[in-house]
Amino acid sequence: xxxxxxxxxxxxxxDIVYQDDDVLVVNKPPxxxxxxxxxxxxxxxxxxxxxxxxxxxxxxxRLDMSTSGLMLLAKHKEAERSLKKQFQYRxxxxxxxxxxxxxxxxQEGMIDLPLICDWPNRPRQKVCYEHGKPSQTRYQVVxxxxxxxxxxxxxxxxxxxxxxxxxxEIGHSIVGDEFYASPEAYAFSDRLELHACELSxxxxxxxxxxxxxxxxxxxxEAEPQVRQHFEIATELPDYKKLKx
Length: 244
What we know:
The chain is an alpha+beta fold. The chain contains 5 helices and 12 strands. It has helices spanning 46-51, 77-88, 162-169, 183-187, 239-243, and strands at residues 16-19, 23-28, 58-59, 68-74, 93-101, 108-112, 115-117, 125-127, 136-144, 148-155, 194-202, 209-213. A hairpin with a 6-residue loop joins strand 11 (194-202) and strand 12 (209-213). The longest helix has 12 residues, at 77-88. The N and C termini lie far apart (44 Å). The model is unreliable at 228-235 (pLDDT under 50).
């Protein structure tokens, strides 16, 4: 599926949430690629904007173009290795907010559905019990509006389009979703209302747990939640043991 005309936002050009000698955390706006696309007209991205000022900047994870919120980058190769290893071994925790269509009756739960790329319709993904990769998302209802439900989402895995597909599969697609929402739910918002609000990781300089947070434009009351509202079945492992 070809990308529609790419018109990324330009104000603010870069929104830095936190930085030090090792890491940089930015608030990516919706509509901006995390990394350049293949076509020259798709070069503008979070990485290409940052590399001008930070020539050694390294991407360690990505957000969909339509998703807003926290992106973590490494300022040098050693930090990149540390952070990528944490994502690989699920040592990070992320909290998202999503406005989904309809009323989600169950107040909280786990969505456990394996995902695979829907190749004839890529970049769409689909559930596949035979070949899909294990994918889990925990969710919690935050509040109800007339036509929608605001969900707090904790992805256990990090598959492409995981939160979008899992929301759709429980009958409540994310509003503004150009791939999975019904026409009514798509037209409800001029953007995909999915935002990466909080990210926790072990800082590569001292192995201490570090959390970054950025407000959500469609839920301004959002506050840091990783330790408050989710009972994480397995606490963050000891990163020092992983490095040993």
